[in-house]
Amino acid sequence: xxxxxxxxxxxxxxxxxxxxxxxxxxxxxxxxxxxxxxxxxxxxxxxxxxxxxxxxxxxxxxxxxxxxxxxxxxxxxxxxxxxxxxxxxxxxxxxxxxxxxxxxxxxxxxxxxxxxxxxxxxxxxxxxxxxxxxxxxxxxxxxxxxxxxxxxxxxxxxxxxxxxxxxxxxxxxxxxxxxxxxxxxxxxxxxxxxxxxxxxxxxxxxxxxxxxxxxxxxxxxxxxxxxxxxxxxxxxxxxxxxxxxxxxxxxxxxxxxxxxxxxxxxxxxxxxxxxxxxxxxxxxxxxxxxxxxxxxxxxxxxxxxxxxxxxxxxxxxxxxxxxxxxxxxxxxxxxxxxxxxxxxxxxxxxxxxxxxxxxxxxxxxxxxxxxxxxxxxxxxxxxxxxxxxxxxxxxxxxxxxxxxxxxxxxxxxxxxxxxxxxxxxx
Length: 426
Ligand code: ATP
Ligand code: MG
Hints:
- By secondary structure, the chain is of the alpha+beta class.
- The protein has eight helices and 13 strands.
- The chain folds into two domains: 163 residues, YNR034W-A-like (Profilin-like, 3-Layer(aba) Sandwich), CATH 3.40.1840; 144 residues, Histidine kinase-like ATPase, C-terminal domain (Heat Shock Protein 90), CATH 3.30.565.
């Protein structure tokens, strides 16, 4: 149980740390990339501010000049002389007419002028765009000039993008390493914090176990004495006295059952129970128990059985008997009219035992708690019992590495499903 809590705490701490750091890293990454872009845009704006006068003057000149010329589209676009190419240039620009014809430009990526207008076709003015062009990341801004002509300025942001990419990988790696460290640390700290809790829990378990053990002997002496009194030949008790004696006996019996249950669970908790590995003819055992159980049922309750032949099992016979009694007793106790069905099958390497009744059922509120110690559903409290039966059943199933579950509909009935793995005898 403590290992489970420790594991749960570790996972929770690591998960929240991971979430927190991821959010932090994401925020950091977004802010850095936004700042970088802001700076690049500022650089471009500065460049545009400085060059504006020349650009627009050139633009006017070309426009005027072009008016006189025969408009030869092919020549305009393919004329490399309008473009000054310099690979070392940080910022580049292109001036286009309103018909997307290149007027002139300075470029640092050879041939970009052919695609620049297309890349910025539907982009609003002064809206910075990061576009990918021949493995290059480019930041482009479009500025409207007069007469419908426009200017595209830009710079390469490939290096910055690579830097950001590397930064992101570093962030992810750091986050994962940090999470691993936190997981180890929280596992260690949770283990440390668990030590005093474990100790006090163990002391409590030991106390329950010792107390149940110590109470057993005086209680059986008490019970035997009551029996002696009851069977005394010279019966000196009045009718009332006799009644009190009978009540005392029944209460003592109840206490004995309770103590047995407590002792069993305390030993189970302390791992003191040795699970015997006996060869059990399970089909035969279930048949015998259900047959004798059937005799105790009132006429209003019918028993239906579906027990597969020749199922063998290796386990603790006393425990398995106890498990069956608990489930059958519950079914009988909470079914006044209707039927109880018991089925036993073997599927792959598992044995499946199902005890189903058409009794009063369990409310959805009570259902998750029925395996808790001393838990009795509110509606069923008037029935006698200790509330330990299902906890013991669960302990027996867990001793055999099995699983027990319950399904129920209030007012319709209840179904307990037990699956036990078939193990080989060593
Ligand atoms: P005892 O220790 O004597 O068995 P109990 O029967 O009350 O006492 P459990 O067997 O642990 O205790 O069952 C716990 C509770 O689950 C019951 O009090 C009852 O409310 C509910 N329950 C168990 N089996 C059924 C069933 N077949 N139908 C309806 N309710 C059930
Ligand atoms: Mg019970």
